[in-house]
């Protein structure tokens, strides 16, 4: 493959994994990245002695090759533990992700009885007539009953996604929330899962977790080191501004330090957000394609890291919240003791929002005052124990699966896939709610396909 040049857009895990595999297959590789660091959503930001991820990022996989690679890359810096995670609900802590067993046994007597009856009613109804599932609301009501929908699914989901449950596609739920049916549920309450069953997205939450001692960013950094050792070039602070299809491949313009640099390549791998890519493409896609691209929305994330002298802040590494201004708290010392100085600990406080909205625009100080008031009230942390705090922001974090997203997404992708020698990879680049191991695997598969076609 000598002389065949591939350009990778974005140095997140998808882009770096593609670059790594392309080099193994003999391509010449360049990677361009807008940030000053590699890793994208799986980066670790260093501020003096503090190491901060974009939210909790344990690594788990049922893919043996990816597991092997992860262990080889992280080597002696690998920590492992079991998932322990709770939801703060009705003034009590219940197991999370929520399943019907939790609803029946952990949410308090009244909630358990009413939820149980409502679940049984929904299951009986389903038995006689298959419900029509048009959106997430239908899915949750049919699967869990009206009561659980009202007290949990509706408030939690609408706060997290910033849209109504009736506007969300049920596909996301199928991926992320345990499916339930009465018989299976009763069986699952009283029996253990069968050995060797393939892990669904939700069952993946039972896999053993791995974590590098200095933050998940070590994974991307080590892949990047390998890419560079093999002769691949990574250009940081290089923001793609134009992608042109040329006669022999692609010409990509990047803005770096106020200057424009042009890269030429035969093959293009893009992990950039789909709407952004469509907007930067020349020849310009037709208006209706651009309109569809603009309908694909990503939920954003604002993260406040609060360093303090308090140890053992929570009973588990992370807890989800329904009626606080944040949706999740993570205690970093429960992952690794090396993310902050020896006598300190950090709490990451996550706020989901849309880029440019009121939460996104809040200053570090405003968010800190808001969060610490709630944390003090709940007894997690006192202001006097705080030693430092930091703010991280990420704009393209969660693809929002609105009920019409499928139509818009396929319209855009059908247009983009007409272009030869271009591959869309990763979570952001495929508008797909994927985990780290999945984006790595998919990037490898995309490169293997290209290599196989190039040999033919
Ligand atoms: C809060 C949170 C928790 C998570 N927890 C887990 C977990 O526990 N386990 C797990 O396996 N996964 C987890 N994930 C998912 C994981 O982070 C992603 O699957 C993975 O990082 C996606 O990688 P990517 O390369 O596809 O996308 P990204 O990381 O988004 O990479 C895209 C890259 O493109 C760059 N880019 C964008 N625009 C431009 C431009 N114009 N020019 C140049 N570069 C550009 C970006 O800066 C970025 O580096 C979590 C994600 C989040 C947000």
UniProtKB/TrEMBL annotation:
One of its GO terms (molecular function) is flavin adenine dinucleotide binding. Pfam families: Amino_oxidase. Gene3D superfamilies: FAD/NAD(P)-binding domain. GO terms for cellular component: cytosol. It comes from the Archaea. InterPro entries: Amino_oxidase (IPR002937), FAD/NAD-bd_sf (IPR036188). Residues 13-377 form the Amine oxidase domain. This is FAD-dependent oxidoreductase. It comes from Candidatus Iainarchaeum sp.
């Amino acid at each position: 493959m000598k002389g065949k040049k591939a350009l990778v857009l974005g140095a997140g895990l998808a882009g770096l994994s593609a670059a790594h595999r392309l080099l193994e297959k003999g391509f010449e590789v360049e990677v361009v990245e807008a940030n000053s660091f590699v890793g994208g959503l799986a980066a670790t930001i260093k501020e003096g002695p503090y190491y901060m991820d974009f939210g909790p990022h344990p690594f788990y996989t049922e893919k043996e090759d990816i597991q092997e690679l992860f262990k080889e890359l992280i080597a002696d810096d690998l920590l492992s533990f079991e998932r322990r995670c709770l939801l703060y609900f009705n003034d009590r802590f219940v197991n999370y992700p929520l399943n019907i067993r939790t609803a029946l046994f952990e949410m308090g007597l009244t909630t358990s009885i009413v939820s149980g009856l409502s679940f049984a009613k929904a299951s009986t109804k389903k038995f006689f007539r298959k419900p029509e599932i048009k959106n997430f609301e239908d899915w949750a009501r049919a699967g869990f009953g009206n009561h659980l929908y009202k007290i949990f699914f509706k408030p939690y989901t609408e706060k997290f996604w910033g849209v109504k449950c009736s506007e969300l596609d049920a596909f996301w739920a199928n991926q992320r929330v345990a499916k339930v049916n009465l018989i299976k549920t009763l069986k699952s309450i009283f029996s253990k899962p069968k050995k060797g069953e393939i892990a669904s997205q939700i069952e993946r939450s039972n896999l053993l977790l791995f974590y590098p001692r200095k933050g998940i960013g070590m994974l991307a950094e080590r892949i990047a080191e390998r890419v560079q050792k093999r002769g691949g070039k990574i250009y940081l602070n290089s923001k793609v501004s134009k992608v042109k299809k040329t006669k022999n491949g692609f010409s990509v313009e990047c803005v770096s330090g106020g200057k424009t640099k042009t890269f030429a390549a035969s093959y293009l791998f893009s992990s950039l957000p789909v709407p952004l890519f469509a907007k930067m493409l020349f020849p310009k896609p037709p208006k209706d394609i651009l309109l569809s691209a603009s309908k694909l929305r990503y939920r954003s994330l604002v993260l406040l890291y609060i360093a303090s002298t308090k140890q053992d802040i929570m009973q588990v590494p992370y807890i989800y919240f329904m009626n606080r201004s944040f949706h999740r708290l993570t205690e970093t010392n429960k992952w690794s003791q090396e993310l902050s100085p020896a006598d300190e600990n950090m709490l990451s406080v996550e706020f989901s929002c849309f880029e440019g909205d009121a939460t996104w625009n809040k200053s570090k100080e405003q968010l800190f005052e808001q969060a610490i008031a709630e944390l003090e009230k709940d007894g997690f942390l006192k202001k006097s124990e705080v030693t430092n705090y930091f703010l991280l922001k990420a704009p393209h974090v969660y693809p929002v699966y609105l009920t019409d997203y499928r139509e818009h997404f396929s319209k855009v992708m059908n247009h983009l896939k007409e272009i030869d020698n271009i591959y869309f990879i990763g979570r952001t680049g495929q508008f797909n709610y994927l985990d780290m191991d999945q984006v790595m695997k998919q990037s490898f598969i995309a490169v293997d396909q290209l290599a196989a076609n190039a040999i033919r």
